[in-house]
Amino acid sequence: MPTPPTSVAPAPIPLPVTAVTCLEDRAHIERVAALQLEPGVQRLRLGPVSALAVDRSLHAELTGGPADATVLDVRLVRAWTPRGPQPPGDEDSPLRRHTHALEEERRTLEQRRDRLRSRLDLLGRLAADLLREIGEGAGFGESEPVRWERELDRADAERDTYEDELGRVEARLRVLADELTEAHHALQISEDDPSELTAHVDLTVRAAAAGPAQLRLSHLTPCALWRPAYRATLDAGQLALQTDAVVWQRTGEDWSGVRLTLSTARSGSATVPPRLVEDRLTLRDRSSTERRSVDVELREEEITDLGPAPVSGLPGVDDGGEVRVLHAPAPASVPGDGRAHRVPLTTSGGAAHSAYVCAPELSPLVTQVVRFTNSAGHALLAGPVELVRDSGFVGRGTLDFTAPGAPAELAFGSSDSHRVLRETEESRDTTGLTQRTVVTRTVRLHLSRFSAPGESDDRVITLRERIPVSEVSDVEVRLRREACSPAPDTLDTEGVARWDVSLPPGGRRTVTLVYELSASAKVTGL
């Protein structure tokens, strides 16, 4: 009786990734495949695709085919195919075969080590038995020195031989452990193990007539994210700013030549408004002690601009509260190895203004600050910046969120040719009749410039020093302009005094700031 032919399942239709929209913590994948439809209802298998694809986000549509072609059902089918403990074949890399050979050698040496330890233990028991027999024979008056000496010498010789061999085996095992550690590390960063969990797409379509059609399928996938990064190059007063996207993805498949879109949308964030809770305000009469005294304290306050307040430890992209979308100008390729890959986005440039700024209370260094206008055509998201000057790479900085056309600034490191020394003095006095406490503080800033041969131009240094700002009427703060040398050019409402000091090559200047804190007698804590 003839054997019926065995049916072979057709190979899945390839479904490559063609476009990716990378969100803040996930990715929206688009795939396109060409199909050849037949009349009636047919079921097609496509893939493989990432096993991490979110089932409920799967969406498929047919374009360019028969007018009545319809997708009846689309679903993900996953299969678990664990890789057996088989030796590497000819298709595996030399590194994987070398690692397998080291593991086999280690296994053989570990077995040899265990056998040697067993033999040494047996020889030790044999020597103990011989010594006990010698003791018992000597006690009964039986003396066989020749045989006893021969047996002890044989046991000692075998034990020395096995101990030497055991030492060589253990030394080789230690070397093998180091080699295997290096081989596994190299294998981890250069190759990926074949996926044990695979997924395919089962598609059910219906068409009245045969013909070609194009399938467009999309879904969400976790384990993908991006962050902005920049490279700023300062050369002869011109600043070139390159905007890149750093993309990480471990979705189980590579993105090769895809249309890459970067978005700051937070699709996983909840859209439910916060719950309202009661906030009760109560009034009470002040006690007699509180009426007689006013308790004040000095505290540090950070000066911030309007905008979204930064949250410590919260990962994400500062987009100014509005979803921003950026597009890669050329097809991008991002391997699924989980490592960072830079994708160029835009390049902008223009004139920049350099200034030398110093806040001696915070740091004695004079920093070169470059101010420029955002001419990239899109918002600059907050992110790290690689700083490059005429001499080359000078360090890394941080760029805050900057709207299109808005001014921005970058710090290009300190200038070694400047030195600032800060000295402070404080005196306390009490007036006679009103018993007001007057605290006088004097701050002296000594500036020096060390010039290289050939320098002849003056350099303007912007100094910033702060004075306290009072929030209660019982404490007054007054700047003594007549005692300042020179008086500050500006003094803003936040109490920050500013001087623009011009220094010639090799020049020295001293700036003096004097202010008073006056408090009434009932003020405590000053």
Topology:
Layout: E1 17-22, E2 27-37, E3 40-49, E4 59-63, E5 70-80, H1 94-139, H2 145-190, E6 197-207, E7 211-221, E8 224-235, E9 238-249, E10 255-263, H3 288-292, E11 294-295, E12 325-327, E13 332-334, E14 341-351, E15 353-358, E16 367-373, E17 383-389, E18 392-399, E19 407-414, E20 418-430, E21 437-449, E22 459-466, E23 475-479, E24 490-491, E25 496-503, E26 508-519, E27 523-524
Parallel strand pairs: 1-10, 8-17, 11-27, 15-22
Antiparallel strand pairs: 1-2, 2-7, 3-6, 4-7, 5-6, 8-9, 9-14, 10-12, 10-13, 15-16, 16-19, 17-18, 20-21, 21-26, 22-25, 23-26, 24-25
What would you say this structure looks like, in words?
This protein is an alpha+beta fold. It has 4 domains: 92 residues; 97 residues, Helix Hairpins; 137 residues, no CATH class; 107 residues, no CATH class. It has 3 helices and 27 strands. The strands form 6 sheets. Strands 1, 2, 4, 7, 10, 12 and 13 form a 7-stranded mixed β-sheet that branches. A 6-stranded mixed β-sheet has the order 19-16-15-22-25-24, with no helix packed on it. A 5-stranded mixed β-sheet has the order 14-9-8-17-18, with no helix packed on it. Helix 1 runs antiparallel to helix 2. The longest helix has 46 residues. The radius of gyration is 39 Å and the shape is extended. About 3% of the residues have low confidence.
